[in-house]
Description:
Layout: H1 2-18, E1 35-40, E2 43-48, H2 49-53, E3 58-62, H3 69-87, E4 91-96, H4 103-108, E5 119-121, H5 126-130, E6 134-135, E7 138-142, E8 145-149, E9 155-160, H6 167-179
Parallel strand pairs: 3-4, 4-5
Antiparallel strand pairs: 1-2, 1-5, 3-8, 6-7, 8-9
Helix pairs in contact: 3-6
Amino acid sequence: MKTFAALTAVATLAALAASPALADLKPGTKAPDFTAQAYLAGQPFTFKLADALKKGPVVVYFFPAAHTSGCNLEAHLFSDAIDQFKAQKATVIGVTAGKVTELADFSKETEHCGGKFPVAADPGATIAKSYDSVLAQKPDWSSRTSYVIARDGTIAHVYDNLNPNDHVTETLGAVKALNGAK
């Protein structure tokens, strides 16, 4: 019986360690400003959150690493939906601390971003740490957390889930709600 209890405790601790930390930045708080090296369709440029916010809401989605199955799917889903975000005057940017040397290719490959939205490099997960979006099992990598930031720089919505399937639906719905659209 003691062995079972010990195994249960170990399994519970292992599951907690493997789970992403829930993002601590809540709606209504000020989003940390950042500037980062980014790529759009393979071309490098400097992304500045403050400049993007002047145009409308910004979706900042953190992902663990380019060219990994979940991140490939998530980028493809954002790429497929980018026109819907643009119709809402929203900017989308993916940010990662993992495999940053692969971002130029990742940004232009049609099976991923397809050149439709930028991805930014976050070496050492500096930006991810400021957003409480680091991967528990790899603290130098980003977790999979999506933020919708209103034009005034406050966080309007947070979605934290390692499963990539619902990030687009969650953030697009939040952008539409922010804009009063249906």
